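Amino Acid Chain and Its Fold in Token Form
===========================================
Structure side: the spatial fold of the chain, written down as a series of whole-number tokens.
Position: the record begins directly beneath this header, with no further notes in between.
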Amino acid sequence: MKTEKETGKPMENKIKEVIVVEGRDDENAIRRSLAADTIATHGFGIRKETWDLMEKAYRERGLIIFTDPDFSGEEIRKKINARFPEAKNAFLSRQEATDKGDIGIENASPDSIRTALEKACCTLTEIREEFSAEDLAGAGLIGDAASAERRAAIGRRLGIGYGNGKTFLKKLNQFGISREDFIRECRRLEEEGNS
């Protein structure tokens, strides 16, 4: 975990939870954006010492999982969520996290990082089926050529990231998104002419 002395950020606006990222460059991006403690997994093969550190942080302060918006990042996220089901999850879009073909939290602007962390969602442990495929179809999020683009925009607005239709539906239910928030963001997207 990075301390105030290491980050150089004032502690009065520090995030309570510890942010789990993939590597040092991600930790540096977090430090440039706000005051927070971080843990780096250093890839998919998470060492026992890192698991122990995450366990301690999870019990004492809570975790926010903030991995890259690529296949490896999603696999690491799944692995950590399986062990810490009440951890919060923060997401960046691929667009926000890409620079010259490189995808990673380290490429995002401080504003994008702060916004993603503000929208961090916690995973619900009970089975929740607030949304169905019919909801996605009705909102134009599955079933036509522009659906992927719409899912990306709505996922960014709701702070749950991108996913194909099945994954997006799972995220809506898993991260406790309210029907009101979903409808509001779908309407806003439509009003902006992105439908």
About this structure: The CA atoms of residues 116 and 178 lie 18 Å apart.
